[in-house]
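Reagents: none. Just compute today. CRISPR-associated endonuclease Cas1.
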Amino acid sequence: MYLEQCVIKRANNALVAADENGETALPIATIAVLMLGPGTTITHDAVVLASDTGAIIVWAGEQGVRHYCSGSALTGSTRLLEQQARLVSNERSRLMVARRMYAMRFPGEDLSHTTMRQLLGMEGTRVAALYTAEAKRNDIQWHGRKWDDRGGAVNIALSTANSCLYGVVHAAITALGCSPALGFVHCHNRRSFLFDIADLYKAEYSIPLAFRLHACTPSLVDGIARRRMRDMMQDGRLLERCVHDVSTLLSEEPDNEDNCSVWTGGQRYGKAGQSWAPS
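Predicted 3D structure written out:
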């Protein structure tokens, strides 16, 4: 749920959002992520209740297009995080997850025996072809990706749209209790896994949008791209899709149980909260 320009407070065992039009009850027990946009204020008691019910609070930009910071994870379990760490720490399993990611981006390709270098080469070729196709579709000349204002409206729009995409992906990764830093394709950056997941959606969202905005005045394209990207991600329910995709990549059955175990050696685990003293 996304809220802006309101005060969120606790009323007994419920949350209410108050603004100039009155108070609205929030179904906190069924909310996975509570995204607070510009102009929101939340009380301490409201944060406590949200945490107790398992909702993650994300302080975000307008319509959630930027992720500034967040509270506790949606899940009380660390199983998905542990699975992420196990997979990324082994070269064979890391390559397996990377292949899964590329299979999602390039459906129909047989990637079962591809190396990481081959996957990267395939990505470079496909992305370059996508840029060329979008330029042709919009009847413009494309001179390559640039990361400054001299790149024109398309490059500015690409940077802005990707930034919006990163915000939503960051919220999803945080909600699942995963680490944004443990990437499978990207590495050595605190947002490596975020970049991995965001790449799954660029060909569908940010790249086509940026080329459609080629005729915009460069000084205005940033705001236009942000609003268009916000609407596209909201209409496409990207946050929910991202949660599902991350869970699928890391685990066959995503786990959200608030349980705790103790490690008893090897691959064995036992129930926490009980005595393990010899009888």
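The chain has nine helices and ten strands.
Action item: order primers for follow-up constructs.
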